[in-house]
Amino acid sequence: MVVFNTLSRVKEVFVPLNSPFVGMYVCGPTVYGDAHLGHARAAITFDLIFRYLKHLDYKVRYVRNITDVGHLENDADEGEDKIGLKARLESLEPMEVVQYYTVRYHRNMDQLNVLRPSIEPHASGHIIEQIEMIKKILDAGYAYEVNGSIYFDVEKYNRKHHYGILSGRKIEDLISNTRELAGQAEKRNGFDFAIWKRADESHIMRWPSPWSDGFPGWHMECSAMGCKYLGEQFDIHGGGMDLLFPHHESEIAQSMVANGKAPVRYWLHNNMITLNGQKMGKSLGNAMSLDDIFNGNHPLLEKAYSPMTIRFFILQAQYRSTLDFSNEALQAADKGMKKLFAAMEKLKQLKTDSNAPSLGIHEIEKACYDAMNDDFNSPMVIAGLFEAVRVINSQKAAEGSIQPAEFDVLNNLLQNFVIDILGLKSEEVAGDHELVDGLMQTIIQLRQEARGRKDYATSDLIRIKLGELHIDLKDGKEGTNWQKR
RNA sequence: GGUUUCGUGGCCGAGUGGUUAGGCAGCGGUCUGCAAAACCGUGUACAGCGGUUCGAAUCCGCUCGAAACCUCCA
């Protein structure tokens, strides 16, 4: 298996530090607003990786943090904490905001069938670990204190190491390009970053420390919690490409100084979802919340799209490519996914015969594994699955049969890839499946009798009325099937 | 300005030095009371211009265009 490592910018063979154990850390959400499509992409990308590694029998510890402190709202490390700001605006206790949006985030992720990580640590629950790490950085001489705040000395760090190793930046460029911003007086250099920040009187999220009552800098939490749960060095660190610099770059610098070694072997970054070619982002005001999409409540949406449609849509692109949002693309994904699930149902009806000719199922299976082993190429997996769909449908249409051994391979292939690895699930019927199906069979039978009498007015009426309830009837050679649209 | 990417047929989106990605839409046919589904068939696609090569959409150079990051962001 090869993975694209942002650090080297090439695909590298994936070798865990302590096989069969794999440690994976992924930057989770800052819980101060509803999750949007971008959150879905990051979560689904690393859910895919988590699921596939487990499928390969790796023992994965997957840590995804909840950022509930230390994220500064404005420029230059001088702003207000994001959670604190929201809390003041809504007259809530900060932890109330955190709880509210964490619950909503979890609900959205459940809807998307994203597995919960092994550990989901909160930054606010690891202030002590962060303070300890800051002490190490201070002791090593790579940070300095000004008025109770501690800043990381990037310039000094860069003399021995390379600040920019991940993002490909050079410190000279940073010097010449760092914007002149107000309130940077405390820093020796504009690109130094706060690792502890003194809180002024108005700041309601604060903890005691040896230096001041304050709060940790944003980059500290991931360094501290990654180290705590996965060790000083672990296999995979993931997140959105927009976190590459300065967040991940700074994480590396902090850990290098505190632990004396690079924290991460493989850095994986998912690309952005775009809207009209532009990044969909909270700060750009063009982000669609997942609830909006699931409910169809957005001026740009022609209709509501189900969580599984969104999941399939995201998996149809490779995680390192930008993915362009459009109604047309979403509707195409919706139709394609339904076709896939319909074929999986049809497979059950396929006749087996040990004398049947081979249908090349093993080749399809191999193609799916090859695709996943090549940097988690889910679109190629899906292409392979549609090969399987074509085989199933054409055999069904020709009333052909399949070798029992190939049937098993095909069945396992679909189960493994569609359900377990891609994490898709059929959304056909919610609720009382048996009751609904029983009712439908009765209706279908009555309609069948009408058709037998050539009473097409009645049979069409039944189909039209069911259509209004988003139920499609499909007459085939062996009777009528129904499907929820 | 710097860093990093990208530009594929109507749409989304893989891939790659020589053989059909795939999905959706379209067109023709089969099937059907009709419809839908399904099946079969169907597309002079790789921004432009040069270069390397027996051969490039794939490698190199230039041009044009777009994006992300350089400030919080998945």
What is this entry, summarized?
By secondary structure, the chain is of the alpha/beta class. Helices cover 46% and strands 15% of the residues. A hairpin with a 4-residue loop joins strand 1 (2-5) and strand 2 (10-13).
CATH architecture of the largest domain: 3-Layer(aba) Sandwich
Superfamily (CATH H level) name of the largest domain: HUPs
The largest beta-sheet arranges its strands as: 4-3-9-10
Helical proportion?
A: 40-55%
Looking at the structure, the CATH topology of the largest domain is Rossmann fold
Uncertain runs with pLDDT below 50, 5 residues or more?
none
- What's the tally of helices? 16
CATH hierarchy, class of the largest domain: Alpha Beta
By secondary-structure content and strand pairing, the structural class works out as alpha/beta
The rounded distance between the terminal residues' Cα atoms is 38 Å
Q: What composes the largest sheet?
A: 4 strands, parallel
Report the average pLDDT across residues.
Answer: 90
Number of strands: 17
Produce the secondary structure layout:
Layout: E1 2-5, E2 10-13, E3 21-26, H1 37-55, E4 59-64, H2 82-89, H3 94-111, H4 127-139, E5 143-146, E6 149-152, H5 154-160, H6 171-177, E7 193-198, E8 214-216, H7 218-230, E9 234-240, H8 244-259, E10 264-270, E11 273-275, E12 278-279, H9 290-295, H10 307-315, E13 323-325, H11 327-347, E14 351-352, H12 361-373, H13 378-397, E15 401-402, H14 404-421, H15 433-452, H16 456-468, E16 471-476, E17 479-484
Parallel strand pairs: 3-4, 3-9, 9-10, 11-13, 14-15
Antiparallel strand pairs: 1-2, 5-6, 6-7, 7-8, 11-12, 16-17
The protein binds one RNA strand of 74 nucleotides through helix 1, helix 6, helix 8, strand 12 and helix 11.
